[in-house]
């Protein structure tokens, strides 16, 4: 039913798809067009400063359309980009730059004086276009930098500002949010048995399963390796348990096809904590991590909600709390992790 509702909403409010591959293609096409545009600006300034007769192409009314950047605007068919406000602004400003450049070149061609206000307007039009293009390119590069290239989901560096924003909301409103650490069970065995390409296939399938089965306002990122972090806004930890357990059960039943003849199933251990208003973000992530290791120690393929006694247990998937007390301090130290450096000031 939830999937049908989501599909219905998507039909009512269609959002163009846009992913890592789209951004890479656009950056590859846009880069040479921007370089050519910079050379054209130099060319126009040479005409204006040195009073060199302009070329016929400099006087064409449709010069913007035949320029490399103009061709990029015309040929770019990604619907997400074409609907982007910075794309629309850049397109209009590109035409404005060419119109003003043509008027100045006509003044040179007819040996007329260039009025300061006309040149100033041309310079401002260049700056306006540059701002629109920079904003558009920045968003593309942010997507490339903050998207995991293997799975297509957010990296932990992309998740951090989202967690900070949610943390501030929790502090400001008193509403709740849960975070969940997900770790695949026996993932190393898949790499050892089938090879690392098979491991990549599993990570792609797990990421798709999480994305497709979360609520539309939940967030997921690949924390690293075979670990993922989920953020569930407006959700008490106790309410998060059935949501996360549904993800766990669905994953355990998912056939992941490695090739035509081979498929595997994987399970995951999952730990949940609230996003604490009065503590740094790192503390909440560490609690979820400890709950996840409690799920590992309990037999894997299960969900655990953080409890205070988990803070006394080692971060080890195999040792029970009792066994953990017998560990040497060096062993315990080697298995513990700190999240403070990865989630600073949060």
Please describe what this structure looks like.
α2 runs antiparallel to α4, α2 packs antiparallel against α7 and α9 packs across α10. The strands form two sheets. The chain has a six-stranded mixed sheet, with helices on both faces. It is an alpha/beta fold. Helices cover 59% and strands 11% of the residues. The protein is built from 14 helices and eight strands. It folds into two domains: 129 residues, Aspartate receptor, ligand-binding domain (Four Helix Bundle (Hemerythrin (Met), subunit A), Up-down Bundle); 182 residues, Reverse transcriptase/Diguanylate cyclase domain (Alpha-Beta Plaits, 2-Layer Sandwich).
- Can you give the helix content as a percent range? 55-70%
- Specify the number of helices: 14
**CATH fold descriptor of the largest domain:** Alpha-Beta Plaits
Spans where pLDDT lies below 50 across 5 or more residues: 1-15, 319-336
Identify the overall geometry. Answer: elongated
Strand order of the largest sheet: 1-3-4-2-7-8
Gap from first CA to last CA: 36 Å
- H-E order: HHHHHHHEHEHHEEHEEEHEHH
Rg from alpha-carbon coordinates: 27 Å
Q: Mind describing the biggest β-sheet? A: 6 strands, mixed
How many independent structural domains? 2
The number of strands is 8
- CATH class of the largest domain reads Alpha Beta
The fraction of residues assigned to DSSP E strands is: 5-15%
């Amino acid at each position: 039913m939830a999937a049908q509702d989501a599909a219905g909403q998507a039909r009512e409010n269609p959002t163009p798809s846009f992913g890592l591959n789209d951004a890479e293609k656009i950056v590859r096409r846009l880069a040479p067009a921007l370089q050519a545009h910079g050379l054209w600006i130099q060319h126009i300034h040479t005409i204006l400063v040195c009073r060199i007769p302009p070329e016929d192409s400099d006087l064409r009314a449709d010069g913007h359309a035949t320029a490399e950047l103009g061709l990029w605007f015309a040929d770019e068919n990604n619907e997400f980009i074409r609907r982007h406000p910075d794309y629309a602004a850049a397109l209009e400003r590109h035409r404005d730059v060419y119109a003003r450049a043509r008027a100045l070149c006509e003044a040179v061609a007819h040996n007329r004086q260039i009025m300061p206000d006309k040149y100033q307007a041309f310079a401002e039009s260049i700056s306006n276009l540059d701002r629109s293009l920079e904003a558009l390119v920045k968003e593309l590069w942010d997507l490339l930098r903050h998207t995991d290239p293997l799975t297509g989901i957010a990296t932990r560096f992309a998740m951090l500002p989202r967690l900070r924003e949610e943390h501030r909301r929790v502090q400001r409103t008193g509403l709740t949010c849960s975070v969940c650490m997900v770790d695949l069970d026996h993932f190393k065995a898949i790499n050892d048995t089938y090879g690392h390409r098979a491991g990549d296939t599993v990570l792609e399938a797990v990421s798709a399963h999480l994305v497709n089965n979360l609520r539309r306002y939940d967030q997921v990122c690949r924390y690293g390796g075979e670990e993922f972090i989920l953020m569930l806004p407006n959700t008490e930890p106790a309410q998060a348990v059935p949501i996360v357990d549904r993800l766990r059960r669905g994953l355990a039943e998912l056939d992941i096809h490695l090739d035509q003849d081979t498929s595997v199933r994987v399970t995951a251990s999952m730990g949940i904590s609230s996003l604490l208003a009065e503590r740094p973000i790192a503390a909440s992530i560490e609690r979820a991590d400890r709950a996840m290791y409690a799920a590992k120690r309990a037999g894997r393929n299960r969900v655990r909600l953080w409890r205070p006694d988990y803070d006394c247990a080692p971060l080890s998937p195999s040792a029970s709390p009792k066994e953990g007390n017998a560990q040497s301090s060096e062993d315990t130290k080697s298995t513990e992790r700190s999240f403070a450096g990865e989630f600073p000031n949060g």
